[in-house]
Amino acid sequence: MMSVYLSGEIHTDWREQIIDGAEALGIHFNAPVTDHDASDDCGVAILGGEDSKFWHDHKGAKINAIRTRKGIEEADVVVVRFGEKYKQWNAAFDAGYAAALGKSIIVLSPPEHQHALKEVHAAALAVAETPAQVVEILTYVVEGTLPK
């Protein structure tokens, strides 16, 4: 069974679109925690509070990194989504980590981010603009068939 890690932007339903569209392919999907508050607060909720926002974020980032590293390391393909509303610095880091591990990367980003993401795009094996295109790529990879 192919494993796909869905990294990046958490404010839209792009993950659900890909998972639903690829349901018949038998792909195992994994992703970071997409509950923004849980992701931000996991460190202090588990390890105790912090007076400094820096250390609050530091604890959470490290615990989230355990999940992210495991997901990327176990994935056959890493899809990295760069959304329109926020800068996803963590997504760029995930793309770099996946590239360093030799993972197949699909970047999902709007055309207006082409210049800003040129280095990330250069490391990717495909650059898509829509979740439907990602589903078509995954379908081709798994079944060897073109879109109808």
Automatic annotation (TrEMBL):
Q: Which Pfam families match?
A: Nuc_deoxyri_tr3
| InterPro entries given in the database record | YtoQ_family_protein
Taxonomy, superkingdom: Bacteria
Q: What is this protein called?
A: YtoQ family protein
